[in-house]
Amino acid sequence: MKIGITCYPTYGGSGAVATELGLELARRGHEVHFITYDSPFRLRGYSERVFFHQVETRMGRYPLFDHFPYTLALASKQHEVVLREELDLLHVHYAIPHATTAYLAREMLMPERPVRVITTLHGTDITLVGQESSFYAITKFSIEQSDGVTAVSNYLRDETYRAFGCGTCDVRTIPNFVNLQEYRPGEPGCRGKVAPEGHKVISHVSNFREVKRVKDVVRVFARVRRAMPATLVMIGDGPERVDAENEARDLAVTDDVRFLGRLDSVASLLQASDLFILPSQTESFGLAALEAMACGAPVVASRAGGLPEVIDDGINGILEPVGSVEAMGRRAVELLRDPERYSAMRAAAVTKAEQFSASSVVPMYESFYQEVLA
Ligand code: GMT
Predict the structure, then answer these.
(1) 314-370 per-position pLDDT tens digit
(2) Is the CB of 146 under 6 A from ligand 1?
(3) What structural domains does the chain harbor?
């Protein structure tokens, strides 16, 4: 098949999933064309059958536009690439504005070249942004106009029906996946690179938005730090980073917290981690949690959104209600103090992650493509 993929190229789960999916589809013989304003952050170097088409985000001085109409430029580029490369379908990730631009491109292409549009819903496009009054109607319309719709968890599928109705759509759950060649348990000794000898390594990866509750990460860590030597590795950047840094200072743990900023590749740090903390307000799936589990780091998370579909409380991780930093900290300490239970939970985390391997999930997208094209 010849597939066009549009996603946000910036650091974030939807862009990560879209890019890993494109790379995996290309490995399986499909031709994949990324259409977006920048090269997606996980698209590293050359890969056979993978192409990138850049969408303009500004033009020379044209006084009429205070804001460049990126969505129209994207729809035009999708139209252009479908025609020139003879694409069969456009698979867009994150409804806003991608499902809308793909709808426009498809209508512009008719009847010359019928192309199918598949929209994958990722999370905040449904749970936050899409429900804001300025976007609600167009989000609902664009979802309903897609030829196929997928959601990354049952929670997100149900939330889509609840919030938007979408009476005519059949929202299919296709879970996120992890590349087990890259995300796998590390060699013994890899922890030494990130923390002093004898420290437990706790990590967190996100885009530091409000929904991630990064101050809670520091609060949970502070409770662990009171009980044992430990280092917290904070990976990523975003609007809440300063608050998290201040929280570390207020709780007097600054010396043991490392803010590393945005990194393209996090597998080696996850392999070095004893625990991963994800105390989000909501999380449609929690790709970061899955990648940590695949590397052998059990996850302490909030019992919210789709996280219970990835983490089984007490078996391969720990779930507590949103904001329960006391309980999260206490259970993390109990686990780290019990080597036998820790080893069992670590092994169970790796086993659970195997259920979400690329080799088992990517074929679900391929069969969905076939179904929609038929
Ligand atoms: O909110 C983010 O962290 C980014 C966001 C995105 O769409 O880029 O992530 C969402 O999609 C990921 C990939 O499907 C999911 O693993 C995340 O759980 C989801 N985030 C939220 O629902 C908050």
Answers:
(1) 999 999 999 999 999 999 999 999 999 999 999 999 999 999 999 999 999 999 999
(2) no
(3) 2-177+357-373 (3.40.50.2000), 200-354 (3.40.50.2000)
